[in-house]
């Protein structure tokens, strides 16, 4: 008779494709049996009747312990970031090994491994950030790193310390096509932002709320269109990250209608925040300064519709953790500063899944299976981690989140486990919360509290991303 380390009994198991009543048998950190009734002995059994048994989330866009310029510092390292992720039902994170201009990409990766080692509670892979595509990076470092399992990278069309010009973007896209990697693009027009910021400052408009006016949708729309056009020229799939509203969505829809392989990601802030949240009393709006900025209620609706219809493949947190009351965070140097100096980014690694579940599944906007696809299966497919991650299937890692679909939780920073001193969602009540999170069969969070599993997380080398798997090298 088969033996198991753990059997989850009587749950409702959902994948991106199916929903079924069944037991889940786990041995050696993997799922080894799925059956209406598993016969066999187990070291432990957990009765999960009345609960949902879902693949643990894959948060494919989050920033943890990323080196920052100008005395800024991210609040979450791999320990606190993955602790919060696990409590929110996430079992894999993919943060960024970021190259500084002039730095070797290999050195950036080595440094990032040192930051993660022995700290992560759940498994992690790395995207790269390519900010300096020198000859050595393009000819030697990137091809080697791709072969070693760093098969996706983010490039920026804005931010002075990160942005690439269009020639550099084309070079990186051609390399991605040649070597079989997926390029993620931050699409905002840098010069337009600089000019608008200048105009706003001249008029004395430096409060946080003017951040949104410095990056209107046209800025995102134009860059999205340009990114799509460059991907078309090179004939390579790309993924546009953190899409904020109707105008960028329109570009992506247009590209898809032309048969272009343009993938897209959105985030909770574009469903739950608006630019009014940047206009809170005094300096409080700094808490919601991120880029692209949140838009308005009509745009939120367009993002919901696009999630439901399948335009987006990936729903990520873009967790970029800066403390509010901190000279290394939202108050550089210890004081309120003009919006251009506020570090961009908001925390959300623990609230990502409950926010989508509550408004999406319980709100009747998306099916449970679509929820699983957006938050686990499709991110794993996009970044070369499937089927080891992102699904419940025989042979997959036993990365599982048990959900109480009816549990009401009033979000407040006091119940979260990141190292940030605020949440943008303070006071919001959601329905549906993960009550048990397993990483390779090991309990890492229970009833909203972390288990002491620091260092349990392992590095994952990524395979070829599915979007690029079918592209033949040409250049
Ligand atoms: N924008 C980014 O591009 N990255 C981190 C956070 C943000 O707001
Ligand atoms: Zn970005
Ligand atoms: Zn980001």
Kindly describe this structure.
30% of the residues lie in helices and 21% in strands. It is built from 13 helices and 19 strands. Strands 1, 2, 3, 4, 5, 16, 17, 18 and 19 form a nine-stranded mixed sheet that branches. Helix 4 links the parallel strand 11 and strand 12. The longest helix has 18 residues. The model has no long low-confidence stretch (mean pLDDT 97). The site of dihydropyrimidine-2,4(1H,3H)-dione has 8 residues, from loops.
Helices and strands, with pairings:
Blueprint: E1 3-14, E2 19-27, E3 30-35, E4 41-47, E5 52-55, E6 57-59, H1 78-87, E7 90-93, E8 96-98, H2 105-116, E9 123-124, E10 127-129, H3 135-147, E11 152-156, H4 166-179, E12 182-186, H5 190-202, H6 210-214, H7 217-234, E13 238-240, H8 246-257, E14 262-266, H9 269-272, H10 297-309, E15 314-315, H11 352-362, H12 368-382, E16 400-410, E17 429-439, E18 442-446, E19 449-450, H13 466-469
Parallel strand pairs: 1-4, 1-5, 6-7, 7-9, 8-10, 10-11, 11-12, 12-13, 13-14, 14-15
Antiparallel strand pairs: 1-2, 2-3, 5-16, 16-17, 17-18, 18-19
Helix pairs in contact: 3-4, 4-7, 7-8
Bound molecules: dihydropyrimidine-2,4(1H,3H)-dione and zinc ion (2 copies).
